[in-house]
Amino acid sequence: MVEVAEPIDPTILVNEVEALGTRLARVKAAVGEVIFGQPEVVEQVLITILAGGHVLLVGVPGLGKTKLVETLSTVLGLAESRVQFTPDLMPADILGSEVLEEGEGGRRAFRFIQGPVFCQLLMADEINRASPRTQSALLQAMQERKVAMGGTTYPLPAPFHVLATQNPIEQEGTYPLPEAQLDRFLLEVEVSYPDEAAERAMLLATTGAAEARARPALTSAELLAAQALIRRIPVGEQVLDAILKLVRGARPETGALPAVKQHLAWGPGPRAAQALMLATRARAVLDGRLAPSVEDVIALAEPVLRHRMALNFSARADGVRLPDVIGALKASLG
């Protein structure tokens, strides 16, 4: 028997989206009281969380990536856990481990002690300083929201998001993230230096006797409801066509652009199209709009695609960069 989806009442949907937009405006204001000079970063991280995904923050140390994650946990009402990734970190330090306990009558049994991954907002700080084995321990948790240990599966709390920070790969003591794990991040967000005005405001706000503290603006239950609402927002055929054209055009096997065929070793899979579909909806609501547009697809193309594509050897030798290829893809959308 085929299930038929219930029709969406446009009036109710519009009212719900408008109410959510009002609440999200309060969220952005609360974050802006603590985080200075990173409006695009804040927007893209909020888009990721609203879309129900994980985000990878890339930038040199000292740009406020950790502060942003701590602020979001308070503003969004999420239980936070933080793991500092180091070369000697083991998978059990993240997931948890089984210990042998002796009970009454001398009976012995294993008991699972949950690791820090059992939270709502996991901050994986400097994730690429841990070994690939430890990095891959997060794969199942990020995709399936559960942890398998000793033949038993333990569900993670809902919502569950990983906000990972990554140092530039050129720095000492870093390991490249496996492609399979990169693909599980909805967006890769580049954190750059703030402009002079923002840095001035930051200095005045953070070095005085009193420092601004984050305040709650949403609960975890409200966030879950918002994520469910995001998935109900209709997407027009024009936007859907733009997503498919962008993602399929970024693959060397199906892309028509010379920049793609000549310079890419491999391109994004279907998960990239899913990420764009959800992220464009979230961006529209965050901007106070009722439906996504092609402009949303263009704006989110780079953070969605750049960690799901790889240049070939000849492209690196010729000095071609991924932003150049993605720029050509965006231009093809008109």
TrEMBL record:
<dbReference type="InterPro" id="IPR003593">
    <property type="entry name" value="AAA+_ATPase"/>
</dbReference>
<dbReference type="InterPro" id="IPR050764">
    <property type="entry name" value="CbbQ/NirQ/NorQ/GpvN"/>
</dbReference>
<dbReference type="Pfam" id="PF07726">
    <property type="entry name" value="AAA_3"/>
</dbReference>
<dbReference type="InterPro" id="IPR041628">
    <property type="entry name" value="ChlI/MoxR_AAA_lid"/>
</dbReference>
<protein>
    <submittedName>
        <fullName>MoxR family ATPase</fullName>
    </submittedName>
</protein>
<dbReference type="InterPro" id="IPR027417">
    <property type="entry name" value="P-loop_NTPase"/>
</dbReference>
<dbReference type="Pfam" id="PF17863">
    <property type="entry name" value="AAA_lid_2"/>
</dbReference>
<feature type="domain" description="AAA+ ATPase">
    <location>
        <begin position="51"/>
        <end position="195"/>
    </location>
</feature>
<dbReference type="InterPro" id="IPR011703">
    <property type="entry name" value="ATPase_AAA-3"/>
</dbReference>
